[in-house]
Design goal:
mainly alpha, 4 helices, 97 residues
């Protein structure tokens, strides 16, 4: 069960980073500018999770942080690493709460 949770956590983070910081951010940034790309990709990322408004805001801010890391490093590695750590933390809290 632990191995399955770890795999799912990593795969989910990788898929979301590839889609939202890889494809969506790139497309919107090229069609408009980085600020609009960052904002729209982060809002879509938060909206995909279908959460209450107060959590939606934190997901949007998390998305913006991941965009910042992607821009700063030029890679999806660090946003992915942050996302995996965040997902693992949430998984562990839910499992042992």
């Amino acid at each position: 069960m632990v191995v399955q949770a770890l795999i799912l956590t990593v795969v989910a983070a990788a898929a979301e980073e590839c889609v939202y910081r890889g494809v969506v951010y790139e497309v919107f940034s090229r069609l408009s500018n980085r600020w609009i790309g960052a904002s729209l990709s982060s809002l879509l990322f938060a909206g995909m999770h279908v959460v209450p408004l107060e959590i939606f805001v934190s997901f949007t801010l998390f998305g913006l942080l991941c965009v910042y890391l992607r821009e700063r490093t030029g890679s999806l590695f660090f946003p992915l690493l942050l996302h995996v750590v965040q997902n693992l933390f949430v998984t562990l809290v839910k499992a042992y709460h």
